[in-house]
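> Could you send the Enoyl-[acyl-carrier-protein] reductase [NADH] prediction when you get a chance?

Sure thing. Input:
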Amino acid sequence: MGYNLLKGKRGIITGALDENSIAWKVAEKAHEEGATFVLTNAPIAMRMGEIKKLAEKTGAEIIPADATNNDELANLFTKSQEVLGGKIDFVLHSIGMSVNIRKNIPYTELNYEYFQKGIDVSALSLHKMLAVAKKLDAINEWGSVVALTYMAAQRTYPFYTDMADIKAMLESIARSFGYHYGKEKNVRINTVSQSPTKTTAGTGIKGFGDFYDYANAIAPLGNATAEDCANYCITLFSDLTRMVTMQNLFHDGGYSTTGVSMEVMTSLGIEKEN
Ligand SMILES: NC(=O)c1ccc[n+]([C@@H]2O[C@H](COP(=O)([O-])OP(=O)(O)OC[C@H]3O[C@@H](n4cnc5c(N)ncnc54)[C@H](O)[C@@H]3O)[C@@H](O)[C@H]2O)c1
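Output:
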């Protein structure tokens, strides 16, 4: 059941690759909440993905765009306004890719070409989207932009390698751009720091399964699912959160502020009586 939280709002949703994608769930929820939107992804991913099914289900049009390419992003924002009949109210940045992770290269031996590719795809793409949107004046006053991130930006997770540094940059861009876009147009920009989630990007990380279970055992509420994440994103796109901007918002069942849980102590066999 929807609450019409996004009734009349127009959006752009990136990153829906398959039904496990966080963006896929956001699209389903946004549709349920009365929004109209455009779906976009890198042309190469769209051929493999199942995005058409999602487009049919949600009545969305698909406009391909490589998020590292300024011209394609300009086309995305221009065409989206034409298709949707006005300026954009919300944007989901749900894009992440590290060649170093894909190739299992350890952090201390990173390949710098791959590193730069990762930065371009997963962090600079947010800056590029915002810069293009601002230049075209494509986002409505009080519009809301959300980018997805992970807590490795604040704490070290050895297997997250270069994506840790890349996410730190992504979060910083959200703050920095949030200032300028907020001052000029009241546009809000936040990052949501999500629990480990079983998606293509997530499970591509070495040891993901063990880590998923570890986080689940730490968080008092357990790991937040992709669907939970989508619900949170909807609130951030809605007018109910209109004074929230330039924040990194943890959405992780309490994981980020829990030191240790009894489950983990017990599993390590170090729980003592006193
Ligand atoms: N899965 C997790 O555990 C987890 C946890 C925290 C944050 N996140 C973040 O959530 C976001 C979405 O990832 P997901 O877990 O839904 O996985 P996913 O693999 O379903 O989505 C990643 C998307 O990025 C897209 N992409 C890659 N290169 C692109 C490019 N050049 N241009 C446009 N799009 C491109 C892919 O096609 C894909 O749709 C990512 O930023 C990821 O880092 C994921």
